[in-house]
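Handout, page 2. Input:
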Amino acid sequence: MIKDLCMQAKEASNKLALLSAEAKKSALLLMADMLWEHRDDILAANEVDVKEADVAGISGSMLDRLTLNENRVKGIVSDLRSVANLPDPIGEIIEEKDMPNGLHVYKQRVPLGVLAVIYEARPNVTVDTTGLALRSGNSVILRGGSETLRTNRVLVDLIRAAMKEAGLPENAVQFIDNPDRALVGELLKMYEYVDMLIPRGGAALHKFCRENSMIPVITGGIGICHLYVDKSADLSAATRVIQNAKVQRPTVCNALDTVLLHHEIASDMMTRIIDTLSKDGVSFCLDENALDLFGDENDVVKIADPDDFDREWLSLVLGIKVVDDLDEAIGHIRLHGTAHSDGILTGTEEHAKKFISKVDSACVYVNASTRFTDGSQLGLGAEVAISTQRLHARGPMALQELTTYKWVIRGEYHVRG
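Output:
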C-alpha cells in the first residue's frame, strides 16, 4: 500500500512541476471555495472526532488543536487563499552571473518533489500543507493522527475533488487513512520516492523519525519560548506583551513558557504579571529568587520543580525566573530553550542588538509577542512547520522553503580548455 501510494505521488510530482503558476493558483482558490461551501460537513466530522478524543482522555492542548469551529475553518480557508495569491517561486532565478569565458550561469528554483508530513491532532495542517505543497509544485503524502481521522477524510476528499475539477493530478495529494502505526515505519523507508519528511508532533514522534527515517527529516515545532524583561523595559507595555504571548492561545508551540526578569525590576514586574495573568486563569512556577520576592506559595503560585524550565507547558502555566543581567538571561535561553521563539523587552537598543546577536533561535523578537511565529502572521500565507534546525530552513516553512534549485549553465557550444 505505502509503496504504491509513494510511487503515485512521485509520478504526480513530475506533472505538477510543469504546471503554470496560474493553474496552481486557480486550483487553490477553487479548493478554498469548496472547503467553505462544505464547512458543515467538515464540522460534523470534527465534532465526532472531538467527542471520541475527549472520551479517550486526550490532553487539553491536543483537544484544542483538534477542535474546529466555523471561525477556525474561516481562518484555514483565508490562509489557503493567501497562499494562492502569493508569487510563485518556481522558476525564479536566485543568482545570476556571466563568467569571463562567456558562460551565463544562474540558479533556478524548482520543487523539492514529494513531501511526507506526519502530524497529530491538527486538521488545519492538512489544508495548510496541501496548499503550500501544491503552490510550490510538490506532491504531498499526509499522515494525520488517528484522533482526527474523520475530519481529515472529509478535508482530503474535498481537496482531491477540487484538484480533479481544476485539472491537477489528484495523486499529488495522498492520504494514509489507516491508523496502523506500522505504516509510518514503512513510509520512513521510501527514500526512492519521498524527498523530505516533516514530523509535526511531540518529542517522541520527532525522535522516532530522526532515528528511523531513511528520508531527510526537518524537525521543529517544539517550543520552549522565553521573554526577557530588561530593566529599561516599559513595564506596563511588557505586561501586555507577556499576557498576549501566554494567554492568546496557550496550547500552541509559539506560546510563552518562561519569563526572565532583571533583578532590579523583578518585584514590580512579577506583581504586574501575576495580578494580570491570574485573572486569565494562569498559574505560575517561580524559581527560588522569584519566590523570595513574591512571598509564600498559594493556589496560583508555587516553587518551580527542577525540570520546570525545560517544559513546554502548552497550557495556562508560566515559569518566572529572576536573573542578574542580560548575559544570564541569554545563558538560560541557551541552556533551556529549543531554538524556537525567544525575545527581549527593552528600551535599550544596545541590549536589543546584543540579544539578537547572541540568541540563536529560529525567531528572535524585540518588543513583540512570540505568538507572531506563524507563516500567516509573517506574510507567508501559512506554514508546513516551524523548523528549529539549521538545514535547510529555519522558522516558518512556506513556499520558498519547499523548493530547492538547479544550476543552469548556458553557453555557445563552449568546451573546457
